[in-house]
Design goal:
Blueprint lengths: L16 H21 L4 H9 L4 H13 L6 H14 L1 H17 L6 H7 L1 H17 L3 H15 L2 E2 L4 E2 L4 E2 L6 E2 L4 E2 L4 E2 L4 E3 L11 E2 L4 E2 L4 E3 L3 E2 L4 E2 L4 E2 L7 E4 L4 E5 L21 H13 L10
Parallel strand pairs: 1-4, 2-5, 3-6, 4-7, 5-8, 6-9, 7-10, 8-11, 9-12, 10-13, 12-14
Antiparallel strand pairs: 14-15
Protein name: serine O-acetyltransferase
Enzyme class: transferase
Family: Belongs to the transferase hexapeptide repeat family.
Length: 304
């Protein structure tokens, strides 16, 4: 399939009210425990989490305070975020899935409340979802202003037109750049300084298409309208200029295929969340496979 024909389905509104309610109850419980153990944070935790009646209101308040400026008021941003989260069940389902993804796939994530308050990858992704909604409503000036604030505050630059699925984990997130015509599937994980860049074809489809369950290592650069297949893994620092087949591993500059893997149980139906970053998980075995594969001098370059 040509890269330009990469299928994209907006994230389905699959998260149940009970699941969201369970997470919100857990967040409030964690905030109470943190306030008791660290009184210096009690006022912050109360104003950001405990004083709110719902997760939507808490997240909207937090994003508004994070992204406001002297001329872009937090109250205006709060209303903007809350309206978007409350009125769009598909968007909100993706937000809840992103929160779960961080907790499930990043062993450094201590709690749901830790992700909500401190994970700039999660926060920047939710701000992007609202900016993308604005973009599709032809409110492009406001969408671009929001993109600019996210870039200034979080160091993450995602064009409002980029389409992103659910269950996304932007780990560390600093320096991530995602271009205008990029498409990212569900349950994708990427680390800091990843670039999904274009080829300079102004006004045309010029950015990568990332399949479900893909893992992109730190500092990787993927350029042009290329397709990264479902479950593929891109090694840290790699430069990818051509398609990568599903469930294969690509590393190097230019990237070459160094082996494939069987379909992971993590991507089977019923598991909502891509590969874990836990070094005791399959990711460590993948890296060992990459190291040994690099010792093989066979010609296994990815071919267009």
């Amino acid at each position: 399939m040509p890269a330009g024909d990469f299928p994209y389905a907006p994230p389905a509104a699959a998260e149940s009210d009970s699941e969201e309610g369970r997470i919100w109850s857990q967040i409030k419980k964690e905030a109470h425990q943190d306030a008791d153990s660290e009184p210096a944070l009690a006022s912050y935790l109360y104003s950001t989490i405990l004083s709110h009646s719902s997760l939507e209101r808490s997240l909207s308040f937090h994003l508004g305070n994070k992204l406001c400026s002297s001329t872009l008021l937090s109250s205006l941003l709060y209303d903007l975020f809350l309206d978007s989260f409350s009125s769009d069940p598909v968007l909100w389902s993706a937000t809840v899935a992103d929160l779960r993804a961080a907790k499930l796939r990043d062993p450094a994530c201590l709690s749901y409340s830790h992700c909500l308050l401190n994970y700039k990858g999660f926060l920047s992704c939710q701000a992007h979802r609202v900016a993308h909604k604005l973009w599709t409503q032809s409110r492009k000036t406001l969408a671009l202003a929001l993109q600019s604030r996210v870039s200034d505050v979080f160091g993450v630059d995602i064009h409002p037109a980029a389409r992103i699925g659910k269950g996304i984990l932007l780990d560390h997130a600093t320096g991530i750049v995602i271009g205008e015509t990029a498409v990212i599937g569900n349950n994708v994980s990427m680390l800091h300084h990843v670039t999904l860049g274009g080829t300079g074809n102004v006004g045309r489809d010029r950015h990568p298409k990332i399949g479900d369950g893909v893992l992109i290592g730190a500092g990787a650069t993927i350029l042009g309208n290329v397709k990264i297949g479902e479950g593929a893994k891109i090694g840290a620092g790699s430069v990818v200029l051509i398609d990568v087949p599903p469930r294969t591993t690509a590393v190097g500059n230019p990237a070459r295929q160094v082996g494939g893997m069987e379909r992971s149980a993590m991507h089977e139906e019923g598991f909502n969340g891509g590969d874990s970053f836990d070094e005791g998980s399959k990711l460590l075995r993948w890296w060992l496979e990459v190291v040994f594969a690099l010792d093989d001098t066979g010609d296994d370059l990815i071919s267009p």
